[in-house]
Amino acid sequence: MTLAEWAQYAPIVSATAIVISASVALGVFIYTRRTNRRRATLDMVMKTFIDDDSRKRYDSFKELVRKDKDSSDPFKLTSLSKLTSTNGVDRSIVVSQMNTYELVALGIRRGIFDEKFYKLWFHRQFTKDYESSMSLLQAVWEESPSIFCECKILYARWIKSRHPVSSPSRYKMGFWAITGNYKKLDAARKSMDS
Fold it and tell me: Torsions phi, psi of 112, nearest 5?
């Protein structure tokens, strides 16, 4: 093959090299983005749930929720909807926890955090805390509907799709029905009802 014949193939070789280079660059970009999202998620989990100060704040939050649920205790979370001279510390605890959830919900919605990882890690905790704080949230939303709106959106989505481990997909449930595995099917239905 002469040099003139090779020259005819030069545009094809160049175009192929450009496509391959662009594909590799796109793959590296996607991989880096996923890795950074996982890293950001892990950093947030470590900060939020493993840090001693965060754990103490969360324990204080749970104590306030328990007091709210106790019928013999006059304390109610709705009393924290507006700042007063007597509820500053308790309000700060609840608002801090809800702000953490709001930050996580916003990060998930904007693609900064990995939703699948978060859902596996704290689906139950988030949904239970959200439900426990519902009376306070409704009181706050009467004044300003945009406060904690990201939590509201995330809760609605997660409560509909359920936890990925404890709530099997429709396909898995269909497979169990076809194969006659009714014990698993009944258990899955029971967990969805609770």
Answer: -80, -40
